[in-house]
Design goal:
This protein has a single domain, classed as Rossmann fold (3-Layer(aba) Sandwich). An 8-stranded mixed beta sheet has the order 1-2-4-3-5-6-7-8, sandwiched between helices. The longest helix has 23 residues. It has 7 helices and 8 strands; from the N terminus they run βββαβαβαβααβαβα. It is globular. It has 248 residues and is of the alpha/beta class.
């Protein structure tokens, strides 16, 4: 299947890649928004985007603020750029969906996924967007409060400056912590993939969340990997979206 890859700028500020089957690029298709990771860019999840589009999805790969075409110098204040990037993803999600629905190119067949920081974004979105039908968190975390504390502790250990009101400035994080609001999942299918040797985003946070929610519709794939996604993992993610979106 031949694909069309189009660069777009939505709401005058959000650079995205749209990956879609060429012959149906102007048709109504299921929509998947897939987020990249920290200090990465939309082009670095393009392989996953291609695999998904080959299965008949319209795939949107946004650049998070401070990344890719929106890149700026990273601040040395611990985690400011990181959390700002996630927060902006949350602000912009609805705008992306609205754009393609207003164009008649998407309907309620909506899915979200992401890698690392994009996986954290994905879990956060699930707490406030019941319209998301299927999701995949790859090397991310459903426990951002834990991750916030991890960054805070690391900064303290290194003797780095951080604002005295650090937690207040990030007071929005608990509102988007899926582990604190597991009921928002309902029966929606969510895939978690994580490497057991991941030292960047803790494997244990995901394993604990899955264990704490045995009645949720969760699929957990764990492999002996570090913070890395290989081609065969992308195939598993694609297969998951195909199977679950096909049930809608």
């Amino acid at each position: 299947m031949k694909l069309t890859i189009r660069q777009r700028k939505l709401a005058n500020t959000i650079p995205v890649l749209e990956v879609v089957p060429r012959e149906s690029r102007n048709d109504l298709l299921p929509l998947i928004i897939y987020y990249h990771g920290w200090q990465s860019a939309k082009e670095l999840v393009l392989t996953q985007g291609r695999k998904l589009a080959q299965e008949g999805f319209r795939v949107i790969l946004p650049d998070a603020v401070n990344h890719g075409d929106r890149r700026q110098d990273m601040t040395k204040i611990p985690s400011l750029t990181f959390w700002q990037s996630i927060h902006t993803n949350l602000f912009e999600f609805g705008s992306i969906v609205n754009h393609f629905q207003k164009q008649g190119l998407a309907d309620d067949r909506l899915a979200v996924g992401g890698v690392s920081m994009g996986g954290i974004t994905t879990c956060a979105l699930l707490t406030h967007h019941p319209e998301i039908k299927v999701a995949a968190c790859v090397m991310g975390s459903p426990k951002p409060v834990n991750y916030r504390e991890r960054i805070f502790k690391h900064a303290e250990e290194l003797g780095r400056f951080y604002p005295h009101d650090y937690k207040s400035l990030l007071s929005w994080v608990p509102e988007y912590d899926l582990s604190l609001k597991p009921d928002t999942l309902g029966d929606r299918p969510v895939l978690f993939w994580h490497g057991t040797d991941d030292r960047i985003v803790p494997y244990n946070d995901v394993a604990e969340f899955v264990g704490e929610n045995p009645r949720a519709n969760l699929t957990f794939i764990q492999e002996e990997e570090k913070h890395l996604v290989r081609g065969h993992t992308m195939d598993k993610i694609t297969e998951y979206f195909v199977n679950e979106m096909g049930k809608i």
